[in-house]
Design brief:
It holds the Pfam family CinA_KH. Belongs to the CinA family. It comes from Spirosoma liriopis. By secondary structure, the protein is an alpha/beta fold. The protein is built from 16 helices and 17 strands.
Length: 417
Amino acid sequence: MTNTIRAEVITIGDEILFGQITDTNTAWLGTELTNIGIRVVRKSSVGDQANVILDVLHEAHQRADVIILTGGLGPTKDDITKKTLCTYFGVGMVRNEEALALVTSFFVKRGREMTDLNRGQADLPANAVYMQNDWGTAPGMWFEHEGRVYVSLPGVPFEMKHLMTNRILPKLRGHFNRPVIKHKMIRTVGIGESFLAERIEAWEDALPDPIKLAYLPSFGGVKLRLTTTGNDEAILDQQLAEQVEKVLPLIEKNVFGFDNDELETVVGRLLSEKGLTLSIAESCTGGYVSSQITKIPGSSAYFWGSVVSYSNIVKVNQLGVTPETLDQFGAVSEETVRQMAEGVRKALGTNVGIATSGIAGPDGGTPDKPVGTIWIACSTDERTVARLLKLGQYRDQNIQLTSTYVLNMLREELLTL
């Protein structure tokens, strides 16, 4: 068995700790490193303080074979990564002529004057292997020290990704004898983590080594991630497929897809395969369901439009909900949401219509219909079905969960057509 190669990712910058920017680099790096058989064992974020950076570097040296840093490589005084690396490795700074030529060219092409601070971008720790950044002036650097590989990258995501993809990942592939790490994701909806765990307990207990299972809860469902490591990718794929085949009969009703599938992707695929069109009537979700559908490129082939009917007047005039229904049952009712789904399907001339109506909160609830009371419906030429959701007190969560559940209702109905 090939030894596991361990990595640690360190992001540098006060702006990350202050919450002024969102760190997307570590998630991307984790995926890319896993894809080449390097297991990330820790991710850390530290501020622009030399002593803190030195501490985390010393710690990372004890547990990782690859230490990747992003950020702190700009030309200003608060960008201290290079100086701190000099201290860590016990070396001085030297000017790299290749880096200087690239920085000079960068400014000449843009017709901008280059300052001494900009020239300082070409000053690197003496033991650094320069890794050219084609999309900016901050250099990439590769170090080998006491059996470890250290990589320093710019924090700007598009620069970091380009450097990593074109320079660092190929170099890491050649440097280490890496195992293969394979994941298989089973995407479920409409079942809680504890219920799911009870249902598959016997299967989970019987999983062979080295296959490991992780539960990844999300809005309205749980992702089951199977992970295994070895040397033969084909054998690993076969082993994972065998386990998926064993567990599916236990949870098939709740499984909507695999790996990178999202509900809106699966729904779009089913609509396309069946040659059907969709329209949406939204009240409490305020257009959120429609935005999920239109995230998918090519959705115009099957999604014709929506009506956001926050007002009862719109429900009546645009969707054909009868005033009698609203008077007798109210806007948040099975009767109303059925008429909304049927009405939008007829008004927009589609094969399928779905609808949402409820009390998202935080206000508007009553003893009979508290916050979180939501009705969803799906209407086709064959039938109209409706379902009551009893959700929580939080508006954003209620909107997202309603979207998940109505899209899953749509998926289930499409499978019957």
